[in-house]
Write a structure and sequence with these properties.
By secondary structure, the chain is α/β, with parallel strands linked by helices. Helix content is 31%, strand content 26%. The protein contains 14 helices and 24 strands. The strands form 6 sheets. It has a 4-stranded mixed sheet with strand order 22-23-1-24, with helices on one face. It has a 4-stranded mixed sheet with strand order 2-15-17-16. The longest helix is centred in the first third of the chain and has 13 residues. The protein is elongated, with a radius of gyration of 21 Å. The protein binds uridine-diphosphate-2(N-acetylglucosaminyl) butyric acid (EPU).
């Protein structure tokens, strides 16, 4: 099994280029199932998760070809609207094929995702929404079977602005008969880009980027091409590594997507320079302790909570971090504690008392963002850290050790 080995303490310096956004490309890849034809997607990150989605598209009958971060998809011969457990269990985003496949075939079978490393992560909003659009649902042998002769527009109110449910139901509704209104939608940039892609395909969607989407069903869609937005979570991860230890420039970003994060980083005493598509950061001599609460966009992303906890564990005094999006997303904390971090968790809140130094140790990654927090903590720690189960990091970060090597880190991958 592969490990990442880091000799910490080296100051980071230089520039890094951010890849395309995982959470933007995954629903867009699913959207290519909505109609037959040839699609071209550029700035696609080479990740385990994008490869898993390609596999899923191949299983349902698409042809995919991926080279130099460009992905061509031919969905002309899709004929098998079924997403098997083997793929769904490794990547919950596989559930995104539900909306497009029922829209195109009037029938879809998708394995129910089950739990994940940090909590139950239900899909009830997706299912209730589909029922509102007129689908009949059945659970058989762990699979959701959804059938609808015709989907009919409806008003759907989300209890919480779920990214996945907004995307899935927007895709299900684009060709439904009549008008669908989605209330309390997610407004994450990745959902905005999905809507823009659907519009390029011929969909009629109003309110893109707001919390209410009005989708007027159209009879036909056609293929389209798109360039994926930069990954704001990868960018935020590198910025926090810079905040801990160095002076770096993060290129190919949309600074507007990271406003809450860069504001918080300024509060810690970091120096930031924000340009049109890059952000430079220098760590302060002493990191100020800053409380943080995650929230849906434009709030501070839950996907950067673990990395913020790593940053705060080396701050001057005490801070409180609360995750309001996921209440149980703290699997990084016992591992950060192995490096010497002083953190207590109560329900969805972490109480962090900054320490002067972290010290390298063998640790284990438990999910994508937990792994990222361990890497940036290890880079700032003294001595050697061995991170095992690195397949988690490969799900969401393209060439992470090469990128940190380019910034002067001592980091290698060992088989
Ligand atoms: N929720 C429900 N029922 C549902 C759907 C969601 O109760 O049917 C709850 C969840 O349990 C959670 C909240 O709503 O408490 C938000 O979940 P959401 O549906 O927004 O999450 P998601 O769509 O499953 C996406 C990202 C996650 C990211 C979250 C929140 C993708 C592929 N995944 O997940 O990214 O944390 O939004 O921003 O876009 C990651 O990249 O590491 C990652 C986990």
């Amino acid at each position: 099994m592969e490990k990442i080995i880091i000799k910490g303490g080296k100051e980071l310096s230089g520039e890094v280029v951010i890849s395309g956004a995982k959470n933007a490309v995954l629903p867009i890849m699913a959207a290519t199932l909505l109609c037959p034809g040839k699609f071209s997607i550029s700035n696609v990150p080479d990740l385990k998760d994008t490869r898993t989605m390609m596999k899923l598209l191949d299983i349902v009958g698409s042809e995919t070809s991926f080279k130099n971060n460009s992905l061509d998809i031919d969905s002309s011969n899709v004929n098998n609207p079924e997403a098997p457990y083997d793929l769904v269990k490794t990547m919950r985003a596989s559930f995104y094929v539900l909306g497009p496949l029922i829209s195109r075939f009037g029938r879809v079978q998708v394995s129910l995702p089950g739990g994940c490393a940090w909590g139950p992560r239900p899909v009830d909003y997706h299912l209730k929404g589909l029922e509102k659009l007129g689908a009949k649902l059945d659970l058989k042998n762990g699979n959701i079977l959804a059938v609808a002769d015709e989907l009919i527009g409806a008003d759907i109110h989300f209890e919480f602005p779920s990214v996945g449910a907004t995307g899935n139901l927007a895709m299900a509704a684009v060709c439904a008969k009549g008008t669908t209104r989605l209330y309390n939608c997610a407004k994450e940039p990745e959902i905005t880009q999905l809507c823009e892609f659907l519009i390029k395909m011929g969909a009629n969607i109003e309110g893109v980027g707001t919390d209410m989407l009005t989708i007027i069903g159209v009879a036909d869609l056609h293929p389209a091409n798109i360039r994926i937005i930069p990954d704001r979570v990868e960018a935020g991860t590198f910025l926090m590594a810079g905040a801990l230890n160095g002076t770096i420039k993060v290129n190919n970003v949309i600074p507007g997507h990271l406003k809450r994060v860069t504001n918080k980083l300024k509060d810690t005493g970091c120096t930031l320079q924000i340009d049109k598509d890059s952000i430079s950061i220098s760590s302060p001599s002493s990191i100020k302790s800053v409380d943080m609460t995650t929230a849906v966009y434009p709030g501070f992303p839950t996907d950067l909570q673990a990395q913020w906890v790593a940053l705060m564990s080396l701050s001057e005094s005490s801070s409180i971090v609360t995750d309001t999006v996921y209440h149980d997303r703290f699997s990084h904390i016992p591992e950060l504690s192995r490096l010497g971090a002083n953190i207590k968790v109560d329900k969805n809140t972490a109480f962090i008392r900054g320490v002067k130094q972290l010290v390298g140790a063998p640790v284990m990654s438990t999910d994508i963002r937990a792994s990222a927090s361990l890497i940036i903590a290890a880079l700032a720690a003294s001595g050697k850290t061995e991170i095992s189960r690195v397949y988690h990091i490969d799900r969401g970060y393209e060439k992470i050790e090469k990128k940190f090597l380019g910034l002067g880190a001592e980091i290698i991958r060992q088989s």
